Amino acid sequence: AINPGNSGGPLLDSAGRLIGVNTAIYSPSGASSGIGFAVPVGEVNRVVPQIISKGKVLRPGLGVTLPNRSLTGDLGLEGVLVLKVVSGSAAEQAGLRGTSQVGDGLVLGDIILAVNGRKVTDYDSLRDEIERYEVGASVLLTLLRDEATAEVSVQLEAMQ
Q1: In this predicted model, what pLDDT tens digit does every residue of 112-156 receive, in sequence order?
Q2: Are 116 and 131 spatial neighbours (Cβ–Cβ below 8 Å)?
Q3: Do 91 and 112 contact (CB within 8 A), yes or no?
């Protein structure tokens, strides 16, 4: 159970292994019952060294604007549609293309299909794949562009 005052404390499994760090409890009644929240130990192990060495967490990114989680699926597309490429970003330097409006229609931008050969199907899977790497790492994106696949190398930048 996670009780008020446990925030920052260890979350242990039944064998006494650390599996997370307690962060909050949601209790509509105000009692020590409800839903407890914790940060998984893998995430803690990833961010704590950055906080110690840099004073903050640097999250890797591409420098693109992505649609809300349902748009790509609503369009019947597999992968992640690039809506906009941020000016001066790693994505722009790598030549990624955003979606553009032409007259009354849209010309779809690149659709990201994979990161270093690992398939991405939606916003969450793309984020998870990108976060496996450090800022400054280069990743190979497999794209659907103009009805053909292409590969583009992008050096990950710190997200703003």
Answers
A1: 999 999 999 888 889 999 999 999 999 999 999 988 999 999 999
A2: no
A3: no
Q: How many domains does the chain have?
A: 2
Find where tokens 């961010």 sit.
Answer: 47
Query: Are the beta carbons of 49 and 78 closer than 8 angstroms?
Result: no
- Compute the CA torsion angle 8, 13, 19, 25 (nearest 10 deg): -40
Q: How far is CA 1 from the centre of its chain?
A: 29
Same domain, 37 and 92: no
**Which is it for strands 64-65 and 84-85: parallel, antiparallel or unpaired?**
antiparallel
**Strands 18-26 and 35-40, bridge-based pairing:** antiparallel
Question: Could you give the percent of the chain with pLDDT greater than 70?
Answer: 92
Q: Which domain holds residue 77?
A: 60-158
Please report, for residues 66, 93, 97, 139, the alpha-carbon distance to residue 63 in angstroms, rounded to integers and kept in the order given. Answer: 10, 10, 11, 13
Query: Are 142 and 93 within one domain?
Result: yes
Tell me how far apart the alpha carbons of residues 68 and 33 are, in angstroms, rounded to a whole number.
34
**80 residue type, one letter:** V
The residues, ordered by sequence, that sit 6+ positions from 96 with a Cβ below 8 Å of its Cβ are: 62, 64, 82, 85, 109, 110, 141, 143, 152, 154
